[in-house]
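Before relying on records like the one below, remember that each one covers exactly one chain. Contacts with other chains, cofactors or solvent are not represented anywhere in the record.
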Amino acid sequence: MAAERAEWCSWTPMSNAWERDAMPNQQFFTPTELQQACALLADESLKPLAIAGGTDLMARFNRNRRRRDETLVFLGKLCLDYITEEGGKVLVGACAPLSAVAASPLVREKLPLLAKACSEMASPAVRNAATLGGNAVSNWRYADGVAALIALDATVVIASTQGERRMPMADFAAAPKKQALAGGGVVRHFAVDPMAAEEKWAWEKMRGRKGESRSIVSVSMRARMAGGRCTDLRLVIGNMAANPFVSKKAAELLVGKTPDEALIAQAAESVQTETDPASDARASAWYRQKVTAALVRRVLAQLG
């Protein structure tokens, strides 16, 4: 068994925690250098699949213990779990666990919106394993990390066999993953401008029940006010479309004006026209529309 593991894992020995009977017929590598990981993920003959915290991937695999041909590439030894400030940006490593992001003093001070969103995702046990990068790459409709990063206008920094490139989070979320992560792409970190003390922010989401943390709808906001007027607004609606989207109509209605109850109500109604939500097991399209209007009113009320 040890010989088999060493053969599968050509760069570092596989941990004893990864046993064949835990994942039938599954091969994987644990590279310790970023370019090694990129080279593996670029090798289509391996049918490579990246894994970090594994909370999405393992749940999907374990539903059906059939033979699988993918080769897993574990990213946990690449030291991508940093949270630091550099060049005027807050850098959050892709492999930083959600719980670490939520608890980070730097994130809580400079990016409170992201800290709030991460603190309300999944359960404590899942947050200890799940990573912000995994949330962004999986990009499920209800991925709260994606919505928060879009609201913060974050930049995704991606390493690949072709070099390093950067994409706005909104573009990364909307792009096909084969395109966004071409050349064995690995998300290194998210670069975000720190929020100024005078900026306004809000994060609200509706979930099915207290023990069910997946969003029915989420609304996040980053805004600036001056003299009682809104000078900048980035309002993001999550789980109302394939990807979270920035509301253009809310910005058109509010920027340059003093938000009052009537204007906020108008903005809440206008946001509903920007998407065509689907019905699913969590909520009907009608319910999502009503919840969105209510959450938008609640979030925009915080501009006062």
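The first helix runs from residue 2 to 8.
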